């Protein structure tokens, strides 16, 4: 029995070498029902490598200029291995004597860039938005106001929290924001648009959803794009987007973390510390994030973001010289909306060669191609050539 729970250096090393060399063979059929007898660990590596490794979408491939999911640096792979071997539960100091400190430290490192005093990790900005809007409700907000840029998780949070949700056209509209939680989007999912961060000054609570664009705050050359974020009451940032982290990794940050955490805490007899936020048991997603920042520093990670921004700019320049292609607007935060002037975006997507990936979105009723600069290894020329070559 113990062998399954001990370090098996030989098979773990083989698992790592398979990461570089996994055979791209046909995926063996998985049993259709729960197997009674196991294959053993070694055979399981061979059985799963073709689908889990070779069969995965390569998010760092030159032709992948599509979604908000980034490739991840190898140090995060090592940390995921370590954290799964130790299986700490950050709910309780007994089961995570050091991992809780690591999360507190990485939040301490990042919160000041957003003018926030603290916060905690969540499995995504969906949960970060829910937690922030929950804190707003506890502070007295009864209505969530957002524009069409808002991510669907904002309406979902209002629904779950029993609050009204009022979608508005834009923040200029002369509407009363009494008793409202205003959710301002910094980096819209479809377009990358950064809404005015001084909007909604009359709201009871101002939450900035910076799930996508938040990491620009780490960059000397792009930080200014989010000036004003430091006056928010709360901020969401997804680390598994532009901080290049494995899923699930994000954070909710608060201007007044003591008051906000108190308002979203529950006690329990068996817990030494109150349970803060939406999650019960949760793991050490802060460890790969801290390791990435320790290994490469703010400047290293900002360099990947800056380079991605440059790739988005290069993509635009390449599209501009093609007579059959057009860009919708100058991209604000690395999301490029573009199209072929005579082929519908969905049709373009269906005709793409197998090594090129572009996502699509609908803006004001019109379909657009959407390329998100989450892959620092993307090749804009390859991607543009693939679309320009269609007819
Ligand atoms: C991706 C995204 C979310 C949701 O974040 P997850 O990490 O996928 O849960 C929320 N808001 C915006 C603007 C996003 O782009």
Description:
- Helix 1 (9-21) runs parallel beside helix 2, helix 3 packs antiparallel against helix 9 (286-320) and helix 4 packs parallel to helix 9.
- The chain has a domain at 88-289: Aspartate Aminotransferase, domain 2.
- The termini are far apart.
- It is of the alpha/beta class.
- It contains 11 helices and 13 strands.
- Bound molecules: pyridoxal-5'-phosphate (PLP).
- Pyridoxal-5'-phosphate (PLP) binds next to helix 5.
Oligomer: single chain
Distance between the termini: 61 Å
Query: What shape does the CA trace take?
Result: globular
Rg calc: 23 Å
What's the order of the H and E elements?
Answer: HHHHEHEHEEEEHEHEEHEEHEEH
Major sheet, described briefly? 7 strands, mixed
CATH superfamily of the domain at 88-289: Type I PLP-dependent aspartate aminotransferase-like (Major domain)
Q: What fold name goes in the CATH topology slot of the domain at 88-289?
A: Aspartate Aminotransferase, domain 2
Question: Care to count the β-strands?
Answer: 13
Number of helices: 11
Structural class: alpha/beta
What would the average pLDDT be, to the nearest integer?
96
Strand content: 15-25%
Bound molecules: pyridoxal-5'-phosphate
Question: Which CATH first-tier class of the domain at 88-289 would you pick?
Answer: Alpha Beta
Major sheet: arrangement of strands:
1-7-6-5-4-2-3
In the CATH hierarchy, the architecture of the domain at 88-289 is 3-Layer(aba) Sandwich
């Amino acid at each position: 029995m113990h062998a399954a729970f001990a370090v098996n250096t030989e098979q773990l090393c083989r698992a790592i070498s398979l990461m570089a060399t996994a055979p791209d063979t046909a995926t063996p059929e998985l049993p259709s029902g729960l197997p009674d007898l196991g294959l053993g660990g070694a055979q399981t590596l061979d059985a799963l490598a073709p689908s889990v490794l070779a069969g995965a979408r390569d998010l760092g491939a030159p032709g992948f200029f599509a979604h908000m999911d980034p490739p991840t640096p190898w140090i995060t792979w090592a940390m995921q291995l370590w954290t799964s071997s130790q299986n700490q539960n950050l709910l309780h100091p007994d089961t995570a004597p050091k991992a809780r400190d690591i999360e507190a430290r990485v939040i301490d490192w990042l919160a000041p860039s957003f003018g926030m005093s603290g916060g905690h990790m969540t499995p995504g900005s969906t949960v970060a938005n829910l937690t922030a809007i929950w804190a707003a409700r506890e502070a007295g907000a009864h209505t969530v106001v957002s524009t069409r840029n808002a991510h669907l998780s904002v309406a979902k949070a209002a629904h779950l929290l029993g609050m009204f949700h009022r979608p508005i056209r834009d923040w200029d509209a002369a509407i009363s924001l009494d008793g409202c939680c205003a959710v301002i989007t910094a980096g819209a999912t479809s377009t990358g648009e950064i809404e005015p961060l001084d909007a909604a000054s009359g709201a009871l609570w101002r939450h900035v959803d910076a799930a996508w664009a938040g990491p620009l705050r780490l960059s000397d050359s792009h930080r200014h794009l989010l000036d004003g974020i430091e006056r928010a009451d709360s901020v969401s940032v997804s680390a598994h987007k532009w901080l290049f982290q494995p899923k699930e990794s994000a954070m909710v940050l608060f201007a007044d973390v003591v008051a906000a955490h108190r308002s979203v805490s529950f006690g329990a007899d068996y817990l030494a510390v109150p349970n803060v936020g939406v999650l019960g048991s949760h793991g050490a997603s802060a460890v790969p994030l801290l390791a990435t920042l320790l290994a490469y520093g703010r400047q290293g990670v900002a360099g990947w973001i800056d380079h991605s921004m440059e790739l988005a700019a290069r993509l635009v320049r390449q599209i501009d010289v093609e007579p059959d292609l057009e860009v919708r607007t100058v991209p604000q935060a690395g999301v490029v909306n573009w199209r072929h002037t005579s082929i519908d975006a969905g049709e373009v997507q269906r005709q793409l060669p197998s090594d090129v990936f572009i996502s699509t979105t609908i803006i004001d009723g019109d379909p657009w191609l959407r390329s998100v600069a989450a892959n620092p290894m993307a090749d804009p020329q390859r991607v543009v050539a693939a679309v320009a070559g269609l007819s």
